[in-house]
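This protein record is not my work; I was only asked to verify it. Take the sequence as given and treat only the tokens as open to question. I have pasted the whole thing underneath without changing anything:
***
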Amino acid sequence: MQDLEKMAAKLLETARKLPPGAGRAMNVENDTEVFYEVRVEPLTGEHIYTDRTGTRAAIHKSGRKLDPMSRYFCPHQWLDADGFVSQELADQYPHPDRSK
């Protein structure tokens, strides 16, 4: 019985050292505006869709254009360091409305 009390005390001590909110489910909301990235064919002016979706700033920084009609919102947790949507991060932080 004393071993259980020691273990419980140790767990409580460890839990108190964690930052607030640690261990709770992350709140994932569609809070970031993103667009499809397009490149413009220089000879024809045709918009060709790339396989990337990102923020305005990320697409602008890449030197490409964005399709303004493709605007939608996704959780900021899905963005990589460059501001583009990452499938790996989307899988790591699934949206509550998305079923696997």
User: Anything to note?
Assistant: The first strand starts at residue 32 and ends at 40. The CA atoms of residues 36 and 53 lie 4 Å apart.
